[in-house]
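Purpose: get a first structural picture of the assembly so the mutagenesis plan has something to point at.
Setup: two entries, given in the order below. No constraints added.
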Amino acid sequence: MSILFILSIIFNDFISIAGVRPDILLIMLLFLAFNEKPIFVIIAAFGFGFLQDIFLPGSIQYWGLSPLFKTLLIYGLLKLLPFVERLKGFYFQLSVFSTILLYYLFYNLLYYSGYVKPFVSIYRYSLPETLYTFIILLILNMIFPLHNKNR
Amino acid sequence: MLSKLYDFIIKKHLEILTIIFVGISLIFLSQTENHVVLRVQSGWQDVSLFLKKPAAEQQRKKKVIEENKQLRMDVFRLNQEVARLQNLDTENERLREMIGFRDTSQYELLPSLIVYKGYKNRSSVITIDKGGNEGIQADDVIVDKEGLVGRILSSGKRTSIASMIIEPDVRVSVRINPSRVYGILKWHHGNTFVIEDIPTTIDIQSGWTVTTSGLSEVYPPDIPIGVITNVLTSENGFTHMIEGNYNVSFNNLREVFILSHDRNKTK
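Result (structure tokens, whole complex):
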């Protein structure tokens, strides 16, 4: 995970498509949320968000935005986890997609506030970034299943 | 009291942690311009740049190679375009000269394009894009702006086959100017001709011109043929052997004019 984290912050620019980058740290947090203890996950959410704001470019203006939204999102997800874990197939994937979308909607609305209109931030940033992140999550999910049934 | 607090903390540890983290995040948000944060960020940028450099260099190299490939293709395309334009320019120049020649010629001329150069019955022939539909018939004369080219052998509806005067068997009745001496011209080799049987008593000099004589039934008079380059005496000592160059560059012929007998009689 540490290697993945280091790789993601180093090669963040290289995996961007037309300026759209996936949030590898968010993917890692989702994996952790389904597989690790809640206290560890909430600490990781804050820690990853904190590191993201320091190391990943583009987060200079709002230092603290990533830990704020990652912590809140993971807290909400952990609370809804018993319900989400019961979902299967399409509905499970839809819930994961919605989680990512929710994060990007709030994050980008604040991040780009004053720069672009809210609607523009949704279709120009939130939706493409959600899709890109979700696709990578789906690919990783085929190798390392997100949902640990033995939990 | 303490045990209650402990139980509360144990029970609500997730919420408490979340509130603490949210609080810290909000404090961070209010400290966005903090110089310590900015220093950490700029320090990381340096490290990150060092780590990213090889990959970025590789990416740049790949981009340069791609760009180079594209530019080579562009250069090739442009060279092709330049060659095409030069060709058009030459063609334009040639056509302009031909139009000028047609307008100043005393004969009525029909411009025509050579569509094929080849051999028929071991003679080199050309096929032109004008035929019976345009009134072309056998023995019509073919000329170029420089002079005589040949004559029509046979004509179809849309095309005609013609022979050129650079054939071993072809003879043309000519007149040497300005002495107005008549002779028979035959092809020698390459782009040269020879005129024999002119008595040595007649003065012939290099640089004099050779035109059709008008004594032939096929070729009308005064069509330029070539220029004398060398005047020799034949083995018998009584006649000249006159060598000369054709005016027409037969190898580079692309367009010709047809001088139709019928049209010129009417004219």
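Chain B has a mean pLDDT of 82.
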